[in-house]
Amino acid sequence: MPYWRYAVLTIVFNILSALFQVVSLVLLIPVMDILFKITDAVTVAPPLTFSIDSIKLNFYYLISHIIEKSGSITALGYISVMVVVLFFLKNLFRYLAMFFLAPIRNGVVKDIRNELYLQIMILPLAYYTEQRKGDIISRMTADVQEVQWTIMTSLEMMFRDPLTILFYLISMFIISPQLTLFVLILFPVSGFIIAKVGHSLRRTSDKGQAKMGELLSNIEETIGGLRIIKAFNAIGTVNDRFKVINQNYTKLMIRLFRKRDLASPMSEFLAIIVVAVVLLYGGTLILTSGSTTLTASVFIAYIVMFSQLMNPIKSFTDAYSNIQKGAASVERIEQVLNAEEVITQKPDAKTISDFHDTIIYRGVSFVYEKEKVLDNINIEIKKGKTIAIVGPSGAGKSTMVDLLPRFYDCTEGELLVDGVNVKDYVISDLRRLMGIVTQETILFNESVFNNIAFGMPNITEVDVMHAAKIANAHEFIIQMEKGYHTNIGDRGMKLSGGQKQRLSIARAVLMNPPVMILDEATSSLDTESERLVQDALTKLMQNRTSVVIAHRLSTVQHADEIIVLQRGKIVERGNHTELTALQGAYFRLCELQTFS
Across residues 385-405, what is the average pLDDT? Predict the structure, then answer.
């Protein structure tokens, strides 16, 4: 544990704080006994040992000596100063305990965020097809914040209050075992009632956090779909749906706050009932002559200590309620952290630095949930060749290429690179062999330079510029306000579709991978942009092994082999001339595009 030193210091200073708090109150008993003449003055110094009676008698002797020499008023002044000093030390140690607790509170939350962020990058893509993005964001923000404000802020109470309660109970037990045992019988009853409220609080908090995830998902979808919402005049419809979700969340949070706010007054009221019962029972013991050694001064000090005991108990029950509320958030965070990493790397995984020979799909099948997306795929891709994959939407084209960098793993068969199963390679090495340009261009809210050099350290501006020229992007980049250091906005919002795609190609060029995967890289572009992008892609594919998914068949006519997929199966294969002559599935796809 990286915070154990802080934890030890926090515990030590909490022990000292609790000890000085108890001692300052125990001091009241001999003071009242001597000042009000309840106990005879001690005129002879008793032997000093580590027993409680010895310490008590020596303190009585010190007070008696001061009273005899300087008078009761002076003695009272000395005692008052001593009490002030003790309380100063108590609060100093309390601050030091909180001072060393701060790195634990914030450091643990920082570690949770770091672990969550890494986990969402490691988890397979299939995980996100079953989860809403807004819910995952909620877990990283609202749930982590809930842990910060409930569990982590309760750490101080969890460190300090049990020690304070323990010291008070020990002191009270020394003063009157009979009365303290009676007190201990009363506590479990109030504790049971508070625990029931805490359990209910946890259930409501769990529902509230789930609703927050739904709320964030709705906001994220709205921002992403604003163009369609406005185009279809759906502002009213979308707004009404948001109001319903927001209203349901508000109702849940009202219930949650009411339950949480009930814990504190309820614990205080139960504490007062306990105090009243203790007053009644203790008073009865005093008034019953000969039944107890309790004196009025001892009983007053006992009641003062008991009233002080209520504060840490109340804080402890509040902390318990907060922890119950935060436990729901912890569970939601753990669901992400404990999610199965389906794409795992073998301990003895092999390294690979270059592609030398062939990529082979041997009897590859892939099942998503219960649907067979790919069925017995057999392909051999020689180094330097261009393979095109065509077919209708939903045929399994993207899934087929996603198996190569192990975004998914095949459920049957094997995928070999240079004769070795991709599952036997170091994952990062395998992915470093492949450059990917997709239909949906993924850019980041960074400068042009950082987007092109993404994931590649020690890259110079000359390198980036060279890659941009190959990708036909240099001309429009230098016309931007700050050239290569211009920020392109969220997801590249400041750029056109063709410009985004050319930046994506420049990134792939700079990576200089031996294998290129092009997933419908020109399908969403206008004619002029397509020409520029296609020219950039042609340069990119030179002297490389390429796997091209194409919607526009005109872009793959020069491929070495065209694979036609339908419902996850290969129905035709060959070059453009051969497949056209067959007048089968590929021919029909060409005709459909010719007349569309």
Answer: 87
pLDDT for res 219: 79
546-573: per-residue pLDDT in tens?
Answer: 888 877 676 677 888 999 998 889 998 8
Residue 408, domain member (yes or no):
yes
- Structural domain harbouring 315: 132-213+251-339
Question: Is residue 445 helix, strand or coil?
Answer: coil
Same domain? For 81 and 137 the reply is no
How many Å apart are CA 26 and CA 19, to the nearest integer?
A: 11
Tell me the pLDDT tens digit for each residue of 197-256: 666 666 676 677 677 777 877 777 777 677 677 766 778 888 888 888 888 888 888 887
- The number of residues making up the chain comes to 596
Give the Cα-Cα-Cα angle 265, 270, 271 (nearest 5 degrees): 95
Residue 458 lies in a domain: yes
User: Distance (Å, rounded) from C-alpha 536 to C-alpha 474?
Assistant: 12
Question: CA separation (Å) from 114 to 107, 123, 141, 166, 452?
Answer: 10, 14, 12, 37, 25
Q: Give the residue from 373, 379, 426 showing the smallest Cα distance to 569.
A: 373
Q: Which two tokens stand for residue 476?
A: 């429009």
**CA–CA separation, 181 and 173 (whole Å):** 8
Give the mean model confidence (pLDDT) for residues 527-538. Answer: 68
Q: What confidence score (pLDDT) does residue 415 get?
A: 93
278-281: which pairs have CB atoms within 8 A and are 24 or more residues apart? 278/179, 278/182, 278/183, 278/186, 278/303, 278/306, 279/303, 281/179, 281/182
Residue with tokens 């893509």: 125
3-state helix, strand and coil shares in percent for the chain, rounded to the nearest 5: 65, 10, 25
The tokens of 149 are what?
A: 């404000």
pTM of the model: 0.66
Cβ atoms within 10 Å of 258's Cβ, excluding its own: 11
**pLDDT tens sequence across 62-102:** 777 777 777 767 777 777 788 788 888 888 998 898 888 88
Spell out a b/e string for 546-561, using b for 16 or more CB atoms within 10 Å of the CB, else e: bbbbbbebebbeebeb
Rg value, the chain, Cα: 37
Give the chain's domain count: 3
Report which DSSP code applies to 343: S
Q: Judge whether 317 and 267 are in contact, CB under 8 Å.
A: yes
Q: Beta 412-417 vs 358-368: how paired, if at all? A: antiparallel
Burial of 436 (0-12, 13-18, 19+ CB in 10 A): buried
Residue 545: which H helix or E strand, with range? strand 545-549
Residue 569, Cβ neighbours under 10 Å: how many?
16
3-class DSSP state for residue 353? coil
| Range list of β-strands (E), 439-513 | none
Helix axes 72-122, 153-175, angle to 10 degrees: 140
Strands 561-566 and 386-390, sheet pairing: parallel
Model pLDDT, residue 526: 58
Residues 199, 207, 126: CA angle, nearest 5 degrees: 125
Q: Are residues 330 and 399 in the same domain?
A: no
How far is residue 489's CA from residue 445's CA, in Å, rounded to a whole number? 5
pLDDT in tens, 263-281: 667 766 777 777 777 778 7
CA nearest neighbour of 143 among 327, 318, 323: 327
Contact 180, 172 (CB under 8 A): yes
Is residue 203 a contact partner of residue 324, using CB atoms and an 8 Å limit? no
Q: The domain that contains 154 carries what CATH number?
A: 1.20.1560.10
